[in-house]
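thread from #wetlab-drylab

HS: before we spend reagent money on co-crystallization trials with N-(iminomethyl)-L-glutamic acid, can we at least see a predicted complex? here's what I'd submit
DV: go for it
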Amino acid sequence: MSWDTLLTGVRLATMDPARGCAYGAIEDGALAIEDGRIAWLGSRVELPGDLPSEVEVVDGEGRWVTPGLIDCHTHLVYGGSRAGEFELRLQGASYEEIARRGGGILSTVEATRASSEQELYESAARRLQRFLAEGVTGIEIKSGYGLEFDSELRQLRVARRLGETYPVTVSKTFLGAHTLPPEFEDGDAYIDYLCDQMLPAVASEQLADAVDVFCESIGFNLAQVEKLFSAARDHGLPVKIHAEQLSNMGGAAAAAGWGALSADHLEYLDDQGVAALAASGAVAVLLPGAFYFLRETQLPPVQALRDAGVPIAVASDCNPGSSPAESLLLMLNMACTLFRLTPEEALAGVTRNAAHALGWKQERGVIAAGACADLVLWDIEHPAELAYFLGGNPCHQVVVAGETVLRHG
Ligand code: NIG
Ligand code: FE
């Protein structure tokens, strides 16, 4: 035993279901870190008597500790802003109408293409720091605002550089199939271009950990999804999908058939879709920020997902059009108020189940022996407070791979 750090005087919300209690909580807990990993955890009274003399003992002063938060669905890297469209929508235009008139995603594509790698990096870094300040230590970042070779790869390189520069683990997703770019009139031809030209380059530069697609009338149809997923499989890349956000196209079930990591949005998911997700083990990622910001009224089938045992994650969907959200804690509140998740389900949605959605199961998103020591210490009296505050930030300290990377106050 050669522990580096022993954290005592903490209440652990382990989020480990094996503990069989709310939040997997250990009151009066202690936790040992060795080589960036959790070496031991338990109640303080169970601590072995013969502690190594060189171990640094840190008193958590009664704070709650959770796993580092994970935002498993973001479009963090983009140029420009869509505040003008927000005003248009307030005057009555719908999100889909704006998209069909060449605004929406395409207006961000224009701004992103016009941005240098450094400009994209700096604006995304500002957003990333806001997430990190709230205890986010893992984040997924999609491309999808380039829609042509150089700018898609530029977005993914920025995502990679963010992960190399900040103490946040970044999962990169290739979303070339976000919408049809202005250079193409035909979705089939664009999907062929993605499969034949872009995907091989993305895969050979190891710029993506997964492939995503927007399956929707203003995105891509099922046949195009299947074609893209087949190409992703040829390159050994896992898949995920934006599905059933504005209508029911059967995208989630199709993705489940390809062993997708997750299906995201899901407001219009039907029973068949729920059953397909349950059978495949894919995670249902709920995005309350987009639901709120687009003033949707169709609720995702949360009870059916629960009944079927589908793991539910919650993410910010941080993007300039449908969810300009820069707070994952606010998403916890919205998941509870809008979707009626319990605070415990919401927290599992940004820890254990978010890790699962990124293929990081066991490694992150849970406080357990052997897992990475990514932890957050909170100034709260109960874990439900994480979903309770609207715009507050009770984060006290963020630890990544056993090292303190941020301390507030
Ligand atoms: O997840 N649904 C598609 N994509 C994004 C929105 C992108 C945008 O409007 O710029 C989403 O909501
Ligand atoms: Fe999205």
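DV: The chain has a mean pLDDT of 97.
HS: ok that's useful, forwarding to the group
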